[in-house]
Write a structure and sequence with these properties.
Length: 102
């Protein structure tokens, strides 16, 4: 089941935490990349690409450098919840990958 895959599992809790918040900002490169902010605390950046286990034919678009992208979040370290192998839990002690803002 896809909801157990790394890259999906961590986003389940993110969705629950951010559900119902108004989308306040949208960024799109038009090349398979989409980012949006919901409320004051939720931000997501997505890259369309092939899942190595179940290829869909999009190809690998690589990582998306968010340098220069105005994410409107306070400076700090944020957990990349898509890198979590299990559902996101607020207050988790470890994060396999962090994003630094500011």
């Amino acid at each position: 089941c896809e909801h157990r895959w790394t890259g999906v599992a961590g986003l389940v809790g993110f969705r629950q935490a951010c559900r119902g918040l108004p989308v306040t900002k949208v960024e799109s490169s038009g090349q398979g990349r989409l980012a949006f902010k919901a409320g004051d605390e939720c931000f997501v950046a997505l890259v369309r690409g092939t899942n190595d286990r179940f290829p869909q034919g999009y190809g690998n678009l690589g990582e998306w450098s968010l340098a220069g992208l105005a994410v409107d979040l306070p400076a700090g370290r944020y957990c990349d919840v898509a890198a979590l192998p299990a559902r996101f839990a607020e207050g988790a002690a470890t994060c396999p990958r962090e994003v630094v803002v500011g």
